[in-house]
Amino acid sequence: MSWTCHGSSNSSMVAALKRAGLIHNPEVEAAMLAVDRGLFVPPGQSPYQDSPQLLGFGATISAPHMHAACVELLRAQIKPGARVLDVGSGSGYLTLIFAHLANRGPGARVVGVEHIKELVDASHQSTAAIPWAQQMMRDDALRLLKGDGYAGFAEWAPFDAIHVGAAAPAVPPVLVDQLAPGGRLVVPVGPEGGPQQLVVLDKDMAGRVSTWNEMGVMYVPLTTEEAQRGKAALMAAFKKGPSPGDLDGCEMGRSRSPGR
């Protein structure tokens, strides 16, 4: 179980997550304030309520409490100048939060990989409203690309932090190979429909790996573009969460998020 927190604006959403103890570190708070979630959610939805929102093409953006949890899990690895890979980047929202954390120092390289071209295009449109992110793209420190997430992104490997925004049947070996010594991989693992666990994998400086299960989750599957497009019609039936009248508060709810 975890707190479910709603806001009527980006800042009030972040404040609710902080009050609930889901945001612990000032760097994470600053990054989530620097990236307005409302820019990354299609019109007609509720970007600041703590539930997944539809992106189209069978994809969703995860609930804010899940984003906060994943950023906190990776914060220590995303030092200034870090290299970060976001697999199944969807809207690009979480990729930009990682970028804000890494951009505090020179040498940062942050890449989001998404196999639905329309989502990649939308992520570029959203990012255009964020000047510092545009500068990172001009400097080739930030990329939002169409590609196969299972393949990672060898060009910028090894990565200090890797996040996967959809559930894999097992930890993808290629992503473990692309993780730097001292790095961390966060990936939901389990069958479509559950049960799934948010798996945290650490690689020590000698290359040895250790894992643990952080929490039970429910994500959409990490799959092929063809399979995802084929299921897109089913996602239209996905129920929305709390109504806009339930804003600026926190309530108890299951820590489950079918998102990216």
TrEMBL record:
Region described as Disordered: spans on this chain: 239-260
E.C. number: 2.1.1.77
Keyword S-adenosyl-L-methionine belongs to the record: yes
Protein keywords: Cytoplasm, Methyltransferase, S-adenosyl-L-methionine, Transferase
Catalytic activity: [protein]-L-isoaspartate + S-adenosyl-L-methionine = [protein]-L-isoaspartate alpha-methyl ester + S-adenosyl-L-homocysteine
InterPro entries in the cross-refs: PCMT, SAM-dependent_MTases_sf
Subcellular location: Cytoplasm
Pfam family, one: PCMT
Residues spanning the membrane: none
Main location: cytoplasm
Family: Belongs to the methyltransferase superfamily. L-isoaspartyl/D-aspartyl protein methyltransferase family.
Designated name of the protein: Protein-L-isoaspartate O-methyltransferase
Organism: Volvox africanus
